[in-house]
Each structure stands twice: as structure tokens, then as C-alpha cells.
Specification:
Shape: elongated
Largest sheet: 6 strands, mixed
Number of strands: 14
Strand order of the largest sheet: 4-3-5-13-6-14
CATH superfamily of the largest domain: Periplasmic binding protein-like II
Structural class: alpha/beta
Number of domains: 3
CATH class of the largest domain: Alpha Beta
Length: 309
């Protein structure tokens, strides 16, 4: 039967240019390592790698086997770490993924709270667009993350934390409508305007509302870079739609003007997401609970403009 040692040996080979290089890395004789691979291939009934004088190359079956081996070894490592932590101080590393808008309001207070209440936990926060975060949560690059849409997330588990209202944004000196600047704007009135939007995440929510009401926006620029979108709109190069937290810095400085969108009012859910297929350590569970506490406190204090659910 294949054991955990053989899985770790195979992962070492997969990560090295050759069996001889892997043997030197893990301190095992090359003939012995080759025999381990041969026995696994016989046990599985498939060829896991092709060997040549230039090194080794994983077969298709080998690539699939590597994915399973990594999950198994990672799960065992997490199990060992969790058992060692039981009854003691919560410690360990936790990867956290946030979209740029969440990160603006959440990353600093969360980092400060984790450092104060979980001093032995090392939080690694990463910022990315929602599409990347979904993949990172699935493959274990991060343990926890905020997402705005649970469509096509498969086995991922999401906690509905809050709902954000979406607003229309314009440069103060480039208000495009006949209504007073900042007055509520019917979504249909945005159709002739030059819109600058992201290509995923928030865009999916906007397109969903537009589709349900027979509205088609004129998107002249797609850009998955929140700061650059705000800068373009502030220069009068177009208009955009954001949640308040994403643009509060520009609004505060008077560089952007916001207006509520009506007919319909547009809302976006915010979920805290984990992957139940991966064993969560005590550190992960503790950070997840702290995240919920911090997020709800920010909403109650009006720092994160949203409605708790």
C-alpha cells in the first residue's frame, strides 16, 4: 500500500528537475527513490512519469497524482499542527484574501486585532480581484477570503456577512445629467454614459441588475484596477459604479461625487468564504471568528457602509 512517506518522496521528485536532484534534496539514495516510484506505479497501475537522460517529466496521470498527494500531505500536516495546539496557545499561519475594496477598510483593523488577541498567529493578507480569490481559496493559497458572489464556487462555504448598496460616481465638475449633482439616478439614465467598469466580480452584479431590467450600459473601458478606475473618473474620462467603501477616499477628498442608483436600487452581498474540503486549524477558525467580529463592528460604527444580515 502507498504510505505518506512515498507521497512525500513523489512530491520531492515532482518539484525537482530529476530523480537524482530529488534524492540529494531529501537525503535518500537515488536507486531507492526510483524503486519507490516503480512500486507506486505498480500499485496504481499507471505510469506516473517519463524518464530520460535530461530528467523526469510527469505524465498526465502523474499530474493528477501530485494534486492528490499535496492535499493529503497538507491535510496531515494541518492535523499534526492542530493536535499539538490543542489545549495550548493558538498559533500558526493564516492566509487571508481580500478584494481591493474590502482591503481598504478591513486589512488594517483585522491585522491589528489579530496581533493583539492572537499574538502567536501570523496573518498573511493578500489583495486580489474576486476571480483570483476564488481560485486561491480552492487551491489553498489562502485559508479565508471575502467574495461578493457565490455563483460557481462549488464546495466552498460562505457566510453572508452584509449587503452593500452600489452608487454612481462622477467627477464633481463632470456631472452628466440634468438633475442636481448627487441626486438619485435611475439606472436606465446611465445607458448613454461612458462607463468604466471592472471585468468580473462587481461587473457580474451590475450586469445581472441590468439584464433583469432590459438595460445595457455603454462600457468604454474595462479595467481590473480599482485605483486606476477612480483616477480616470476623477479626471472626467468616464463614470463608474462602486460600493461606498471602494471610493470613500476620493469622495472624502472631493475628487469624486456619488449618487444613489434607483429603479432599481442595487445591492451587493459580502460573504466570508472558506474551503470545507481543507482541514481548518485552530488558528484559521480563530481568525475567521475575529474577522466576523471586526467586520460587524466596522459596519456598526459606520466605517464600512453596509447593512448587516
Amino acid at each position: 500500500m502507498i504510505d505518506i512517506r512515498q507521497l512525500r518522496y513523489f512530491l520531492a521528485i515532482a518539484d525537482a528537475p530529476s530523480i537524482s536532484a530529488a534524492a540529494q534534496t531529501i537525503g535518500v539514495a537515488q536507486p531507492s527513490l526510483s524503486q519507490h516510484v516503480q512500486r507506486m506505479e505498480e500499485e496504481l497501475g499507471v505510469k506516473l512519469m517519463d524518464r530520460s537522460p535530461r530528467g523526469t517529466l510527469l505524465t498526465q496521470e502523474g499530474h493528477v497524482f501530485v494534486e492528490h498527494a499535496r492535499r493529503i500531505c497538507d491535510s496531515l500536516d494541518r492535523c499534526v499542527a492542530d493536535m499539538r495546539e490543542l489545549g495550548g496557545v493558538v498559533r500558526g499561519r493564516v492566509g487571508f484574501g481580500m478584494p481591493p475594496s474590502c482591503s481598504m477598510v478591513m486589512s488594517v483593523p483585522l491585522a491589528e486585532t489579530v496581533r493583539l488577541e492572537l499574538p502567536e498567529v501570523r496573518l498573511r493578507a493578500a489583495e486580489a480581484m474576486s476571480g483570483y480569490l476564488k481560485t486561491w481559496i480552492e487551491d489553498g493559497t489562502v485559508d479565508i477570503g471575502f467574495l461578493y458572489d457565490l455563483t460557481d464556487v462549488g464546495q466552498l462555504r460562505g457566510t453572508h456577512v452584509m449587503d452593500e448598496e452600489l452608487f454612481f460616481y462622477s467627477a464633481p465638475d463632470a456631472w452628466p445629467l440634468d438633475t442636481p449633482p448627487g441626486a438619485p439616478v435611475p439606472l436606465a439614465d446611465l445607458q448613454p454614459l461612458d462607463m468604466i467598469l471592472t471585468s468580473n466580480g462587481l461587473r457580474n452584479t451590475i450586469e445581472s441588475y441590468c439584464g433583469k431590467h432590459g438595460i445595457k450600459l455603454k462600457v468604454v473601458v474595462e479595467m481590473d484596477a480599482m485605483t486606476q478606475i477612480k483616477e480616470l473618473v476623477a479626471r472626467g474620462s468616464g463614470y463608474t459604479i462602486f460600493a461606498p467603501v471602494a471610493a470613500q477616499d476620493y469622495v472624502r477628498r472631493g475628487e469624486l461625487l456619488r449618487a444613489p442608483i434607483v429603479a432599481p436600487k442595487m445591492m451587493r452581498p459580502v460573504y466570508l468564504v472558506t474551503n470545507p474540503a481543507r482541514v481548518a486549524t485552530r488558528a484559521c477558525r480563530a481568525v475567521e471568528q475575529l474577522t466576523l467580529d471586526v467586520a460587524r463592528e466596522l459596519v456598526k460604527r459606520g466605517i464600512w457602509e453596509a447593512s448587516l444580515v
